[in-house]
Design brief:
about 475 residues; alpha+beta; seven-stranded mixed sheet; disordered N terminus; disordered C terminus
Length: about 475
């Protein structure tokens, strides 16, 4: 794996602590962002500090304290101090922050476009705690017990029953149960993820839900009194759920796509390229993703669909049918404000923040780079032990062994936001153990001008046999 810029010396103690019996070797490359100053490590750390003077959450030996509550630790706990320090920052509620701007523009659109008797039809909820139960995050959304999204390697757990929400949908059932049938919900969500310019372990979503009664959906349809939301003895197909009539689903789907198309048009104008992609979510059917054209590529900005009726029924609204969507505020803000790197949203640098101090939330603004310094690229190679007994023990206990996200968390805990990207370059299996694989990864989204990467020195396993190989670190030449 490759580590970028000043973070490299900090990782060397880890890299030199190779196990006695080696079977796995991985190599990743990490790179710092070329749009920020790289000549001053202190300067960068200040720009990306958490900016909070409040007492930081505490991860103790037996418990985790967050937002004034204490949670016991267990064998599933995997929250890290750097991630926990983000809890409570609520960037989406900080005035004139770009995430606040995009949230306010979405609110303004819904408040203006959907009113009843002079009042907004959609209520807005943007201050719910990100600490939820696993039942809220998974079971309430009908996510199966064996679904990949439940994996420890993809989520941040305080313990087996409590976690940081992975999506704002975790609050969907409780809000519907409270009697709401039109609402928007915004908040920070947490996922262990890859490292690159468009992924970050903490990001922000906005959820929207709209429920219809039989009268509301069919009142403007000719002979609508003869139509119904539900049918008995129906069949589940790609177009609908078994309990829904096709007429109802088509009307709800049309309303959903029209609502979201009007939203992105109001944000970006009519010139934005949009496309719909059929997809799968456990809590909606049929389901769709909206993608927009961003810097030459299609970027997924939201998922949506017709809510699973079982979910609606469990929330006490069994006489209604509805749609739901969830969009990424960072993704929309990156397109709208031309922000090239998701880490910038956490910057405390006034040169960044002051760009978004606007007299009108609809005022156009385009991000101006803070520096022209190029990215730095470094490579790291290492071996991972893996034996069959350890593998079986991990399987029986329900604990996962090494995953790519484990290394990403190590990188974040040491390099923090100095690291821009980590990518896998290659892997190698030790011929005498059969279980080992050597991995090389490369990080960075650009090669510095004039840089000439050194050739990697490769040690032949057949020559060294079972002796642990020396770990190689490859750094770009300047």
């Amino acid at each position: 794996m490759g580590i970028q810029t000043r973070t490299l010396p900090l990782l060397l103690p880890f890299l030199h602590s190779s196990p006695r019996h080696v079977a796995h070797r991985r190599s990743l490359k990490l790179s710092a962002n070329g749009i920020l100053p790289t000549h001053s490590h202190t300067l960068l750390c200040r720009h990306f500090s958490n900016g909070s003077s409040a007492a930081q959450p505490v991860i103790g030996q037996d418990s985790v304290e967050v937002l004034g509550h204490t949670y016991p630790r267990d064998d599933v706990t995997n929250i890290t101090p750097k991630i926990l320090a983000k809890v409570g920052r609520n960037l989406h509620n900080q005035s004139h922050h770009p995430l606040w701007l995009i949230k306010e523009r979405i609110k303004d659109h819904f408040y203006g476009a959907y009113t009843g008797r002079g009042n907004p039809l959609f209520s807005v909820h943007d201050n719910l705690s990100p600490v939820v139960t696993t039942e809220q995050n998974f079971d309430s959304l009908l996510i199966p017990a064996d679904h990949p999204s439940r994996k420890r390697g993809d989520n941040y757990f305080l313990n087996r029953t409590t976690m940081l929400r992975a999506h704002t949908s975790a609050h969907q059932r409780e809000l519907v149960r409270s009697g709401l049938d039109r609402f928007l919900l915004a908040g920070d969500v947490y996922r262990r993820d890859e490292i690159d310019a468009t992924h970050y372990p903490v990001f922000h979503q906005m959820e929207g839900v709209r429920l219809f009664t039989n009268h509301e959906l069919f009142s403007r349809v000719e002979n609508g009194e003869d139509l119904s939301l539900f049918e008995a003895g129906g069949r589940r197909t790609a177009q609908k759920q078994q309990c829904h009539t096709l007429e109802a689903v088509k009307l709800v789907e049309h309303n959903l796509k029209s609502t979201l198309t009007r939203l992105v048009t109001s944000l970006f104008g009519k010139d934005l390229e949009v496309r719909w992609v059929d997809c799968y979510f456990p809590f909606t059917h049929p389901s769709f993703e909206m993608e927009v054209r961003f810097r030459g590529d299609w970027l997924e900005v939201l998922g949506c669909g017709v809510m699973e009726q079982e979910l609606v029924n469990s929330a006490g609204a069994g006489n209604k049918l509805g749609w739901a969507f969830g969009l990424g505020l960072e993704r929309l803000a990156m397109v709208l404000y031309s922000i090239p790197d998701i880490r910038l949203f956490w910057s405390q640098d006034p040169r960044f923040l002051q760009q978004f101090v606007l007299s009108d939330i609809h005022q156009p603004v385009s991000f101006q780079p803070l520096s022209k310094y190029p990215a730095l690229h470094n490579d790291i190679s290492f071996w991972l032990p893996e034996d069959e007994r350890g593998r079986e023990a991990g399987r029986e206990s329900g604990r996962e062994r090494y995953t790519e996200n484990d290394f990403y968390e190590l990188v974040r805990s040491i390099g923090g936001d100095l690291v821009e990207k980590v990518t896998l370059v290659d892997s190698f299996s030790h011929p005498k153990t059969c279980e080992g694989r050597r991995h090389r990864a490369r990080a960075g989204n650009q090669t510095p001008r004039g840089a000439r990467p050194r050739s990697a020195v490769s040690h032949s396993p057949s020559r060294y046999g079972d002796i642990p190989l020396k770990q190689d670190v490859r750094v770009s030449d300047f």
